[in-house]
Amino acid sequence: MWVRRFHPVADSPHRVVLLPHAGGSASFFFPFSKALSETTDVLSVQYPGRQDRRAEPPLENVGDLVDAIYAALAPWADRPLVLFGHSMGAVLGFELARRFEQDGNVHLRGLIASGRRAPITFRDENVHQQGDDGLIAEIRALSGTDSGLLADEELLRMVLPAIRADYTAIETYRCDVDGSAPVLHCPISVLTGESDPRVNLDEAKAWSKLTDGGFTFRAFPGGHFFITPQQERVVAAITEDVAAFANLAVG
């Protein structure tokens, strides 16, 4: 099962879909879901190869992940959707937004891209080709995995196949547009950490070239996983964006 709905809101006029980072899981967003449920229905995506889906082989290609998530979200598209993705999840959100707008069967309100440079920017990265120790060093440097898991070497190595698959997917992804013309019509909001070693401010602002539907940019104190210490401010930003997207849709 791809979709987790931790805090159902039956009467919400829209849904926010949360897409985790590489190595992440739906439960990472549990506190975000709880906070956002005051105003909206929240869905968190669970990729295969981790937690209760540990027995399933992880996917190593962004296209395959998008195909599967797209199909999984179809039953939940009876209300307008807002996509929020962090790091790898932001790229998945972008490709899902393209798919939703192309098929025209889903009312997509907007995309919130967090902690990821625009897909039209490129860095040659090869963490997925490193040995286990190199992969562990990378995730520790970014502080993107639960501290308890990082402290448990045996448990950490059990989830390495899923982490490596995610890194393979995002590091081999190539965007097939050049940014010379917008590819999305929905608004894009970007959240980034001011000291993120994987995303500089220019790379984050380059998301503006991908839409003609409006662009918002916010920078927060912190590194790649600024959304954890800045959770209250991030939740407020998401709430503001969802309201703004709804107003744009009405207008």
From TrEMBL:
<feature type="domain" description="Thioesterase">
    <location>
        <begin position="15"/>
        <end position="239"/>
    </location>
</feature>
<dbReference type="Pfam" id="PF00975">
    <property type="entry name" value="Thioesterase"/>
</dbReference>
<comment type="similarity">
    <text>Belongs to the thioesterase family.</text>
</comment>
<dbReference type="InterPro" id="IPR012223">
    <property type="entry name" value="TEII"/>
</dbReference>
<dbReference type="GO" id="GO:0008610">
    <property type="term" value="P:lipid biosynthetic process"/>
</dbReference>
<protein>
    <submittedName>
        <fullName>Thioesterase</fullName>
    </submittedName>
</protein>
<dbReference type="InterPro" id="IPR029058">
    <property type="entry name" value="AB_hydrolase_fold"/>
</dbReference>
<dbReference type="InterPro" id="IPR001031">
    <property type="entry name" value="Thioesterase"/>
</dbReference>
